[in-house]
Amino acid sequence: MLSVLLLAVCLLISGGISEDDAGETSSTDEEIEETTSTTPLYGPIFNYSETNPELQKYQDAWKFMTSNESFHMLYRNFNTNPTGANTTNCVNATLIYKDEATHYVLHTVTYLNTTSNMTIGFNKSYTVISSECYTTRNVLNGTVAGTNTSELYPFAFANDNCAVIRKHSWSNETFKACELWVFSSALYKELSCCHFVFDLLCTRGYKQKTYDLELCKPKETEVNAVVTESSTITDRGTQ
Fold first, then answer.
1. Distance (Å, whole) CA 220 – CA 114
2. Does residue 71 contact residue 182 with C-beta atoms inside 8 Å?
3. 224 inside domain
């Protein structure tokens, strides 16, 4: 309960929630009972501190994942490398396709392997679903292209700058695995609320940095190549 109140304070300070909205979160028992009885029970069940239908408008996974703007993983509190080495950087995702009817999205994900200095890419698809008692689609049911494996990613928090996303399969009673993703336009913004929510809701102590602003910014040669290509297209169009 304390974490929910602190989250509301963070949203109020950052402008993500109005005073009217803050009042709405303090529903009476009768209102909560009415909401629960009229909301269809379907979807996966979670027991995280922020799992609350009254907070669902701050956990809109569909809105975040269907943005035309690329987003980047700043850090996570776990490491998938079996040796514990930090060899992954410049992690970003870009929307390729979305289906409004089925709530299916496809992204291309790229990252830099700092050992080989090679950029690796793959496609990852998701069906965006609602957890139990939610009407907002707040959970990613993700699959890696070419595999039969899938896992759930509940959104703990999302706004116009960032999203704190849980990796449910890596979480248990004592450890809560999370990732912090940020839109390109927010990389150089003040993100204190995003960092606060991550530290509030996710296990603290270790953070694997997966996006270094200096390392990951476009190289001058890449920028020049884009400019040259655009100029060539313009020249062709005027001929």
1. 19
2. yes
3. no
Round to whole Å and give the CA distance between 177 and 200: 12
pTM of the full structure: 0.78
pLDDT mean values, one per 10 residues, the chain (239 residues): 58 50 41 39 89 97 98 96 92 98 97 96 96 97 77 97 96 96 97 97 96 87 42 41
Beta bridge partners of 124: 107, 144
Count the domains in the chain: 1
How many residues appear in the chain?
239
226: in domain: no
139 touches 131 (CB < 8 A)? yes
Alpha helices in the chain (DSSP H): 2-14, 19-24, 29-38, 61-65, 192-201, 213-216, 220-238
The answer to whether residue 187 sits within a structural domain is: yes
221 in any annotated domain: no
The burial class, CB within 10 Å (0-12 / 13-18 / 19+), for 154 is buried
